[in-house]
Structure formats: C-alpha cells, structure tokens
C-alpha cells in the first residue's frame, strides 16, 4: 500500500496523522507507526476499500443511543422500512426507519435498557442510555464526604499482611457511623498470581476479574473456619509475622495467602454445607471468560516454573497461545483441581466484596464502595491472551513528550481496540463495567481522557514514535451511563492534567464528576477560594501519587540538599496558609514545617468548605501521616504500593486527630440524615 492510501486508511481508522509537541511544532506520524497501529487493530491493506469485512465501516452488532433521541442505523446494515424492536422482557413492537438526508434512523425508546433490533434476518443490540450517568448530588441529595484508602494498607483479622475487603468493611462501618457516604479504594483487578513481585494495582492482567489476595475469607466463611484452616496448613507463625510488619511484603505474603486459599478450597468442598452449594452454583454458571482466566493463571504459573522467561503468552509453546485451542482444553482437563481453585478464589473475592459493600451501606453510607478502574492491562495478561481480537496487543498506552517528560511516556499497558470493540458488540467493555460495579456504589475511571483518545506507542518504539488513536467516545459514555444507571452508581473521572478544550464540560454533561485536588487548584498568587470550586466535582486533599499533606508540609518528599526545592516549598506553604486565612479557615501565624497538624486540619477544612458534591479525604491525611503510596517514575527505589496503616481498620478513626478532622467534615459538610439505609 502506498503512503497516501496508508494515511487515508489510518485516518478512517481513527489514527491522528500528526500531533503538536511541547514546542508547538507539528510532528508527522511515520508510516511505520501507522502500520503498527493498524496491525494491532487487525486492519490490513484489503480494508482500504470502504465496507470491506474488517474495515471501520463494517456492520456493527451493537448500536448506542440516548433515550428519546434518533438512532443512526446505517452502521448496523439495516435498510429503510419496518423493523421489530424487542425489549429486555421479550416484548416486541414495530418501528419505522426513514432517511432524512443525513442517514437512516428512528427514534429510540424513552426507557433506557438493552433492546434487540430485527429486520430481514439481521439482528443487532440497541443500548439505550439515559442522558447522563447518575450524579453524586442526585445520589446524596446535597453534599457529602468520603474516605480514600489503598486496600492493601488496611489491617484486619487474618489478613496475612495484605489488606482485603475485611478491612474495607471494618473501615466503612466506622466511617459510615460517623457520617461518611463512601470509601474509595485502590483498584482490585486481578494481577499475576505466579508473580508476587508484580503488584502495582494499576498494571493488571485483566480488568474483568478480581485480585484474590483482596478476598477476605473471614467475611464469607467465618473466623472459626479460617482459623482452623490456618492452623491445619501450619501458617500461624508466618501470617502473624506478616501481619505485624510495617509494610506489605508481597513476595512472602502472596504464597502464604495462596496456601490458605488452597486449604480453604479443600475444606469447603469437603464440608457439603450451604456455602459449598453456593460455590457449586457459582462454578456451574461460570462464564467462559472466567474459565479462561482461571486456566491462564494455572498455565502461567506452570510455564514460569519451567522457564522464568515465559512471562508473555506470545512466547508460550505452540498450542497454548490461544485460549480456545485443543491443547489448552486438554491442559485444563488435566489440571481441573488447580483451575477450580482459581474459580473458588474469584467466588471468595466476589462474595467478600459484596459483604463489604453491605457493611458500608448498613452503616449509613449512601454510596458505599467507590471502585477504581485502571486505564489498561498488561498485554502479557489473561485478558489479551483470552480475547486478543478485543485488545491492542503490541501497543502501549502513554503520553507524547511534554515539559515534564521530554522523551514522552510509555506506561507498559494496553487497552481495548476501538474496532475490536465495535466488532464484538462492546462485549468486553460492558463486562468490565459490570464487574467493576457489581458490588460498588461508584466507579472512578483512571485517565478518563482515554474515552476520547489515547497516545499509543508500538512495541519496541520510543514514546516519541506514537500517535493519537481516537476512541468511540459516544459509545463508551453511553454504555457507562447505562450501566451506572442500572447499578445505581455514580461515576468519577480522573481528569487531571491538560485536557482538550471543552472536555471538562463534556464530562459535566455526561454526569461524570471530575477531580479537583487542593495542591493543583492554585496559581502563582494563591489557591482558588473554596467558594469557586466546581460543584459537579469531587474535592480532594491529595491523591495516591502525592505525598500526604503532613509530609508535604514537612518537606518529607524533598532531598535535604535540594535548596531550590526547599525554597519553593516554603513559598508554597505560605501561599496555602495565606489562602486558608483569606477563606476564614485559619488564624494566627503559619506553623513551622515540623508542626504540620494545623496545616492538615486546614487542608481538610478547605476541601470540606467547597461546594463540590463530595469531599474525599485520604486516610493518610485523616491520620496526619507522611505516606506517599506511589512515587511516579520510580520502581524498586521507593516502597511503592507497600505501606500499611498503623492500626486495625476498625479502630483507625478512634485516633484523636482523626476524630477532630471528622468533626471538621461534619461541621462544614452538614449532617447526613440518619434514616438513610
């Protein structure tokens, strides 16, 4: 294919042909990059002809529309005339399509939901979405506040050194009793069970299933059963030592937790009680995607044991690289018990998250758990192995060069192919939303800009050799609004950094709450007055990529010999204290760096005073800790994703400083009605 035809095919496939760098200069995307991205999308030279089987114009098995608005039928291959519209209950009605000069269409039903369209042997799903996702203000009937916690940092009985949903339940219960409406947790996606050192929650193997290390057997099976299993497996001393440790020792704690899960699996199967029956029903109804993920986990562990270099499935032996192959089916049959253990772990994770959400809601939270959706998955993981046509395997998500990263960024993750989604009827995306929202009252979407476009970098290329790939934004927002509505959940979008003009307004129209972080809501003269913050956003003191407020005030994140940074921080302290004073939140002289208590109180009061629908306070800020969960751009040199909170989750809020700050939140956010379920 000559370059002009290549560029035209790339353009029609949603690939931007150029981009503007940090100096404002236009950079042309190379033919090599275009070919690599098209190949990852499974678009070849034969698709240069519009309407070819794999082309962007191919017939689609799913259409999206807003309730009461017109549905464009052309992309699904329907003709002008009568169609049958079948609702979710199987009731059918006749609709008439017509051409209006802009295409073939009809008016969608007023009731959101999934419908089926039929005409002359052709069938497609119609996803009718509400105009936007449910908003936080609608859910709360006003303003509220929430805590944010890294799930692995929470301590609870028999957690074996890794926080789980038992800690979420315990913290959620005491926070709910004190007036909190939600608890936002770090991602709980499945990682790689055979690789304990691979523990970043934002680098999952799949976003369709859970990390079994966060399952809490006590919540599901009871403490007596778990204690007996620990004793029988000889894990008492190891687990107790791991639970006392100040940080998470993933490499030691993971094998211990997996040994406990194996022991619990054996005991449950032998028990024959009601829980065993519940697991048997869960296993019998397991979708193929779960069976594939369970099989991948067992395969991955076995192949890594044989040869440590077999990390990526594309380097596995012939016959094992495709989830649907006879060789994989034979392996699954030969290793049925190990595969069943993986399914049991998913059952336990799902049941324990459901129990944790119930605890939060029973304590009075009007939202409960806010789950976190990572921007992508590792291409070596189970999701790319089991459904490669859905994913952009061979490409990495990142960012072009800017003033903060002159060489650009490649985050080592990939995501759904926009054409793969269209061809599959968005099955993977819908399944991901449903998995995230099944037992949660809200969802935070990491890098929500990815609903519009993503910077994709071919494997082996530098981040400067990428290109922007347009995503099917309207479809993604429609499906998100529909699933959020079906689950009665709110949606938050991580919209920090530079966004295209009008994108925040787009999020607002979609009912997606943006994030406003105190340290970013400022200019050279001070912080934005609390009254001027966005009401349709969540107000935050910090994020997982920032040091907690006490550590920031102390300068604990700065090198002692970096005098320039120390001077900038002194200036920043003055700006914040002056802004808090102007807002009437503090009085008196600015505290010394080594005395951060009043500054932490002021930061919490600042975000609480805003009109933002939800004030989200990191537990580390509530406790006045110096912790930074993750230092971007670092790996082993920092204890990222390892910190543990100083006491049991159930008693964290008994701390005197935490109590004082909760009273601040209660006073400035207003009291929550106590009759809310």
UniProtKB/TrEMBL annotation:
UniProt-listed Enzyme Commission number(s): 2.4.1.25
One GO term (biological process): carbohydrate metabolic process
Enzyme class: transferase
Reaction equation(s) it catalyzes: Transfers a segment of a (1->4)-alpha-D-glucan to a new position in an acceptor, which may be glucose or a (1->4)-alpha-D-glucan
Tree of life domain: Bacteria
GO molecular function: 4-alpha-glucanotransferase activity
Pfam families per record: Glyco_hydro_77
Region Disordered: start-end pairs: 630-649
Entry keyword set: Carbohydrate metabolism, Glycosyltransferase, Transferase
Protein family according to the UniProt entry: Belongs to the disproportionating enzyme family.
Protein name per its UniProtKB record: 4-alpha-glucanotransferase
Source species taxonomy: Bacteria, Pseudomonadati, Pseudomonadota, Alphaproteobacteria, Hyphomicrobiales
